[in-house]
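Issue: ligand-bound run for flavin mononucleotide - logging full I/O for the record.

Environment: standard queue, default settings, no custom constraints.

Inputs:
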Amino acid sequence: MNARAKPILVLFATREGHTRKVAEHIAAALRAEGRDVTLLNAGDADPELELREFSAAILAASVHVGAHERAMVRFVRRAREALARLPTAFLSISLSEAGAENESNAPEIRQKAAREVADTMNRFFEATGWHPDRAAPVAGALMYREYNVLIRWVMRRIARASGGSVDTTQDHIYTDWQALDRFVALFLESLDPA
Ligand SMILES: Cc1cc2nc3c(=O)[nH]c(=O)nc-3n(C[C@H](O)[C@H](O)[C@H](O)COP(=O)(O)O)c2cc1C
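Outputs:
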């Protein structure tokens, strides 16, 4: 089997569901380019998952209270050596990145948010010992309709301080889908240098 014939693994870890949508978007973009894709939730992934069966891997995990999802940390720690043998990319989904990208935020708020994003990603790389070939932050979502009363109240306060929406009657998605498409296209190009 040549490398091209093997599927690309898209593995995600989510709490409120938005990173699943990000992963599904990536999978659809890859399939539109004729790639075979295996989409898996890290929480459900078989611990014996054979990474040799894939030609590349894109991992995506959301951030809660300063850390990436435990299921992703656990998976990457276990699979670090096999991941190192594949072309890999990591996407970190957070609201801090939404704050960093929000052009109506003051420059110091955007810089502080960008520092938080970088620190959180670096903590993940240190905690797992994994260094993907490519990594990028992705602006996440405020899923007010998924939160309980307490979390909704906390998230509204955080949103007010960081330029997010305080309208708790609906969810708010900050992901830049076109930027995500560009990231995926560059990753694919790196697999198939012309
Ligand atoms: C309780 C809670 C804590 C959060 N903590 C952080 C955080 O520390 N930093 C951050 O940037 N975003 C934080 N977020 C925002 C999430 O990263 C964002 O909503 C993301 O889209 C969640 O993705 P998921 O639905 O895939 O879990 C938090 C969200 C919740 C509900």
